[in-house]
UniProtKB/TrEMBL annotation:
Keywords: Antibiotic resistance, Cell membrane, Membrane, Transmembrane, Transmembrane helix, Transport. GO terms for molecular function: ABC-type transporter activity. The chain crosses the membrane at residues 28-49, 69-90, 110-134, 146-168, 175-194, 231-251. It is found in: Cell membrane; Membrane. It comes from the Bacteria. Residues 26-254 form the ABC transmembrane type-2 domain. The keyword Membrane applies. GO terms for biological process: response to antibiotic. Pfam families: ABC2_membrane. PANTHER family: DOXORUBICIN RESISTANCE ABC TRANSPORTER PERMEASE PROTEIN DRRC-RELATED, TRANSPORT PERMEASE PROTEIN. This is Transport permease protein. Belongs to the ABC-2 integral membrane protein family.
Amino acid sequence: MAFAPTAGRLAKLAAVETRLFLREPITLFFAILLPVSLLLALGGSIPAFRVPDPEFGGQRVVDVQLPGTMVMLSVVTLALSTLPVVLAVYRERGVLRRMSTTPVRPAALLAAQLAVNVVVAVLAAALTLGLGHLVLGVPAPGAPVAFAAVFALGCLALFALGLVLAAVAPGSRAAQGLGAAVVFPLLFLGGVWLPRALMPEVLRRISDFTPTGAFGQGLIDGLGGHPPRPLHLAVLAGWALAAAIAANRLFRWG
């Protein structure tokens, strides 16, 4: 008979996972400090980024393009690099197998891991936008509800994809390799190295159908006060649903 995880058990697991998360300075750096540092360094050192640019609808790069991209970078790092590796390590060490014999089911540990990573993603986004506002004058999201909705849907899509990586990776090293193989092309298509507005039409169209392309553009639209494009919402929902189904079928605890 399966034991449903209670709120108390989940809270205790989440507290443990939070302490373990905070013990990994590399994770904190890449998920939180690196995006914030890039925003402040690039926005503060490149004068052109603080001048209205017609390529971005007359807005400054530091107003929407750069903050939106850095928020996306945080979520991608947590979802596709951190989460799969941690779950692969737990599987290698038999943590999930041992938990299956206790009242605390492995699913509870998975829920706690997801909760911790999502909270970190929210804190990273708040820190990025908050420090961007204080240091560079980055305005608050012009369409806050749209921004929050896209952020939530993007987290669903990317963390579900991260669970797929955790499901197919035979070990932690494989999880790291798979994560890197997926992250770098997705970051490129999401506009990290070449803004989507500057991409050739064909490449931008391809980007529209990727989770990072849809996510990044949706965040930028919300920051700029525009509603998300229906295509991008549909793409994120489609990735979230497909990845969740795949993860559910492929994921193994032992």
